[in-house]
């Protein structure tokens, strides 16, 4: 569950070196001096110059809490939280006992050490960040300020119609900022092209997360979703820089359209765009609707195997998907349509995670996984709904746009 990645997640959340305690925040003079010294280094690392100096300020932890709370209320209101929670409980990605809304604020507050706010176009340093590590936070967030001069962050990160596409956009932004930040602070920038360095960095970041009690206790879907934009995004942006003769940052039109393209850049290079899946009927009685995408289906597949490593390096053959959660007196009903690149991928998904899900018993519920075709393409439909759901006899249908 990627928490539907809204703008307030533009923060240096998963960087182990960006956390810590200190006797007090940097004062205004110290912060201004740090920003001024970093601007030319960030411009050099990114290959883009600022059009105008960025705004910056400090915030207390209480102010950050208030900011996060306001953003949650605005972009992830209670009705949406309830829909996501119900859908992912039915998919067994969240335990029935988890209160998602109660988890989100402490989860984000635990991780934020600095952030760039697109709405106010201001970079914030947070009280408690260690002074000797302030440059990491500021460098990362300065990159976001540069990005905002070329991309409409305040609108593109509020597109809630497709969570998978939104996660891909965020991965570009956070991955770009992560690579640039490391380029600023590392004396030997040639290490950034070394695969061994990135493997060690991935391990360091994941190990650092174990020191965060809220993060460590969160379900896998949440942990993987939070780490994804920084790690997979950095890998994608390394590939972008090395393999494509384009600008240092994708334009709005060049942004990847799916987490599949982030995880498997060759799909991006050959123009393997997602199949658009739409439900045929109006959204009457729909509590929540969204797209899972390659990343979440990879996580779900791992959970259906009984847990363990998420094998995101191996492509699923995902083509597209869409799910709806319907309201009923007997309990919420979930309908998920997935489209696949070929019959082999569809059969593998149907006989693997889909079949395992169908074999799991949920009191008062029935689960069905069926291979079908949408617009002549191999597909799998998964339905988990109360046994007495009236729509079992007339299931919602979907359409797919052929490639």
Explained architecture:
- By secondary structure, this protein is α+β, with helices and mostly antiparallel strands.
- Helices cover 46% and strands 15% of the residues.
- The chain has 14 helices and 10 strands.
- The strands form 3 sheets. The chain has a 5-stranded antiparallel sheet with strand order 5-6-7-9-8, covered by helices on one side.
- The longest helix is centred in the middle third of the chain and has 24 residues.
- The two termini are 28 Å apart.
What's the short story on this structure?
Helices cover 46% and strands 15% of the residues. The protein has 403 residues and is an alpha+beta fold.
Q: What is the molecular shape?
A: globular
Quaternary structure: single chain
Rounded to the nearest angstrom, the radius of gyration is 22 Å
Number of domains: 2
Helix-strand layout with pairing:
Elements: H1 28-46, E1 55-59, H2 61-75, H3 78-90, H4 100-111, E2 114-117, E3 122-126, H5 134-148, H6 153-156, H7 163-185, H8 195-209, H9 213-217, H10 220-243, H11 259-263, H12 265-269, E4 277-279, E5 286-290, H13 293-304, E6 318-326, E7 333-340, H14 343-359, E8 365-374, E9 377-386, E10 398-400
Parallel strand pairs: 1-3
Antiparallel strand pairs: 2-3, 4-10, 5-6, 6-7, 7-9, 8-9
Helix pairs in contact: 1-5, 1-7, 2-4, 5-7, 7-10, 10-13, 13-14
Main attributes?
403 residues; alpha+beta; Protein Transport Mog1p, Chain A; 46% helix; globular
């Amino acid at each position: 569950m990627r928490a539907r990645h809204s703008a307030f997640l533009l923060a240096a959340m998963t960087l182990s070196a960006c956390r810590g305690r200190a006797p007090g925040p940097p004062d205004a003079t110290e912060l201004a001096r740090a920003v001024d010294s970093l601007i030319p280094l960030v411009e050099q690392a990114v290959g883009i110059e600022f059009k105008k100096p960025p705004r910056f300020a400090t915030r207390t932890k209480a102010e950050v809490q208030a900011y996060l709370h306001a953003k949650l209320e605005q972009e992830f209101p209670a009705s949406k939280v309830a829909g996501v929670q119900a859908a992912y409980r039915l998919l067994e990605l969240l335990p029935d006992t988890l209160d998602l809304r109660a988890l989100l604020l402490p989860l984000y507050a635990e991780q934020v050490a600095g952030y760039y706010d697109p709405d106010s176009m201001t970079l914030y340093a947070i009280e408690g960040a260690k002074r000797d590590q302030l440059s990491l936070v500021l460098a990362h967030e300065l990159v976001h300020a540069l990005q905002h001069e070329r991309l409409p962050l305040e609108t593109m990160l509020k597109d809630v119609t497709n969570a998978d596409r939104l996660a891909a956009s965020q991965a570009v932004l956070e991955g770009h900022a992560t690579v640039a930040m490391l380029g600023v602070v590392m004396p030997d920038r040639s290490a950034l092209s070394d695969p061994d360095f990135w493997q060690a960095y991935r391990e360091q970041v994941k190990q650092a997360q174990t020191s965060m009690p809220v993060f460590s206790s969160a379900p896998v879907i949440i942990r993987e979703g939070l780490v994804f934009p920084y790690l997979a995004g950095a890998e994608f942006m390394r590939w972008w820089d090395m393999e494509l003769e384009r600008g240092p940052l994708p334009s709005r039109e060049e942004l990847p359209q799916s987490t599949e393209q982030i995880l498997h850049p060759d799909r991006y290079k050959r123009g393997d765009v997602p199949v658009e899946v739409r439900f045929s009927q109006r959204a009457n009685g729909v509590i929540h609707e969204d797209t899972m995408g390659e990343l979440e289906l990879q996580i779900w597949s791992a959970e259906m195997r009984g847990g363990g490593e998420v094998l995101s390096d191996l492509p699923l053959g995902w083509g597209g998907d869409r799910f709806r959660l319907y309201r009923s007196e007997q309990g919420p009903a979930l309908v998920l349509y997935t489209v696949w690149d070929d019959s082999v991928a569809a059969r593998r998904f149907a006989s693997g995670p889909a079949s395992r899900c169908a074999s799991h018993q949920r009191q008062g519920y029935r689960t069905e996984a069926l291979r079908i075709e949408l617009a002549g393409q191999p597909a799998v439909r998964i339905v988990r709904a109360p046994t007495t759901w009236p729509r079992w006899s007339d299931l919602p249908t979907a359409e797919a746009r052929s490639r």
